[in-house]
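Minutes, project check-in
Item: structure for the 407-residue chain
Input as provided by the requester:
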Amino acid sequence: MQKTPRGMRLHIGIFGKRNAGKSSLLNKLTNQDISIVSEMAGTTTDPVEKALELLPLGPVLFVDTAGIDDKGAVGEMRIQKTLGIIDKTDLAIIVCDSSGWDDFELKLYKIFKERNIPVICVINKIDINKPADDVINKIKEFENDLVCVSAMTGEGVDDLKQKIIRSAPDEFIMSAAIVSDLLPAGELALLVVPIDLEAPKGRLILPQVQTIRDLLDNDSMVMVVKERELRDALNRLNKPPYLVVTDSQAFLKVSADVPKDVKLTSFSILFARLKGDLKEFVKGTAAIDDLESGDKVLVCESCTHHAIGDDIGRVKIPRWLNQYVGGKLDFEFYAGHDFPEDLKEKNYKLIIHCGACMTNRREILTRIMKANAAGIPITNYGLTIAYSLGIFERALQPFPFAMEVLS
């Protein structure tokens, strides 16, 4: 369980003013002293994360944040970090004490509701003061179902856990398939896995491992080869594979080797569907035709790996796009959870995102929303590579619904 990637966990953010008892509540929920607790307001300065198993949801990630009412120059920086956590929050817990809500909590609540993020309202410290009826009624004007707890004694914490389970988005109860819905049980999926310098020694990269597991859970057969052995592997089969999935970097060679009547896609495109909105990404890919020399393009990586000499996002994609455009584009790179807030001012003509295996769907959907609000088309690595290499329609063969946006 502890090895479950963060991007596959339900992200539960704990928000509220300083000294509302957020850190104490996290410690009680996890039965561990994760966050430092003090009577001094503002003890939590940076987001504190704790991964654990919460049945029946499975792996979750709690995130304790700094007080939304922090003060001063440093306090403002802490607030910005707290607001940044919203982008990757799947379920929000707003914590206050018996004094109830004011503009701070209300602002948070409205942000979550605008983004369709489920909210749980919690009144903490009921061992010290029971909330008055008017305080409860004021909160219920916005959210009727609230939980009263004591992070000190544990009263109401079990009720909060049950509320978390009931409020979790459906996709965490009904887990989405990566690839297994694309082929019947018993059929063969052939995975093309280049082993390059970015592959961790002795292991496959995360999307490949997760895809294999998803196929095995579906009772599908899996064959894994490197791109150099693909043609020989196909010749040895007495029946073609039902589906071929390749690393996007090997798209051109794999497309040439795989028979035209065999469905083909890439790991990155599978994850574009799993972690984002495939239709939106397909629509954004068409904007590549509008690019001109000198245009600014934002490239986003969800992980912070050390870039190698022929890095896919920083070297190969820029090279392929420059060749497609017939000029030199101006690329800007962001990694991890960093994402520019001033999209309109940056004047990007296109945003290209990685497969997002190291982050969660909520964060990618938030980035898509921000791109749409700024009027900037957004796509992903695999779709960009397929488009620039002239095999876009073939790479989307398993997803006919996604091509509808281009008709």
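Outcome recorded: The chain has three domains: 6-173, 180-269, 277-406.
No further action items on this chain.
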